[in-house]
Write a structure and sequence with these properties.
7 helices; three-stranded mixed β-sheet; globular; 3 domains
């Protein structure tokens, strides 16, 4: 059972879809509890749902190991990694860097690439803006090469781990402020991966709930006191 909460059922569903990075048609939703505002905060209850991903949304490694694998087009991951490295190297060189890309395939569905350059802060950009843009380009390359179920993670100088720690601290601080002020707090726009870290960090917090709103690339998280 995978539980998600929100002020309303629709907010809970939106949070689940954002966290799982799937569309509404790819999940089955069971309503456990309808949200209720209560009177002057008394009797207030969050909406609670149970979300299950449908079989049609299985990852490529699961599908390849299924009885239907002979009818599926299997991506040559090693070849894809080499082509991706060459593509990204070319792009980064045009930005004025002399990069070295070290690639690793993780869990059969994630390609992790560490970019070694001299000016790492410039490559990463403010709050990861530049490296996230490069990651987006790389993901488009993967998708167009037939690896739509393969995820790309670009990193440099252990930025992703540091950013994750910073986001967890931001989630905790925002939750405390939302509780203290009794008002929703809107965070700055983030990409889907960073929003997932925030949602996951707040998932077990009994005093707040979170959901995403807006359209990419300006989609934001709202942290709401219960």
């Amino acid at each position: 059972m995978t539980i998600y909460k929100g002020r309303t059922v629709m907010e809970a569903i939106a949070t689940a879809l954002d966290y799982l990075n799937v569309k509404r048609d790819n999940v089955e939703v069971k309503i456990i509890q309808e949200g209720r505002n209560g009177f002057l905060g008394i009797g207030k209850k969050p909406a609670i749902i149970d979300v299950t991903e449908l079989e049609s949304n299985l990852k490529v490694d699961t599908l390849v190991n299924s009885p239907m694998k002979d009818s599926l087009e299997v991506v040559d991951v090693d070849k894809l990694v080499k082509e991706l490295q060459a593509y990204l190297t070319s792009v980064i060189e045009k930005m004025g860097f002399e990069p070295q890309l070290v690639a690793e395939v993780q869990h059969t569905k994630d390609i992790y690439i560490d970019i070694v350059v001299q000016e790492r802060s410039r490559l990463i950009g403010h709050h990861g803006k530049t490296i996230n843009a490069l990651q987006g380009l790389g993901q488009i390359f993967i998708n167009r090469s037939g690896g739509k179920n393969i995820n790309l993670i670009l990193d440099s100088a252990n930025y992703r781990a540091k950013r994750r720690d910073a986001l967890i601290q931001l989630a905790d601080k925002t939750a405390r402020n939302a509780i203290a002020n009794g008002k929703p707090i809107y965070l700055n726009p983030m990409n889907a991966n960073e929003r997932k870290i925030i949602h996951n960090s707040l998932k077990t917090n009994q005093h707040v709930t979170s959901y995403s709103t807006g359209k990419e690339p300006r989609r934001v998280i709202v942290v709401v006191p219960r």
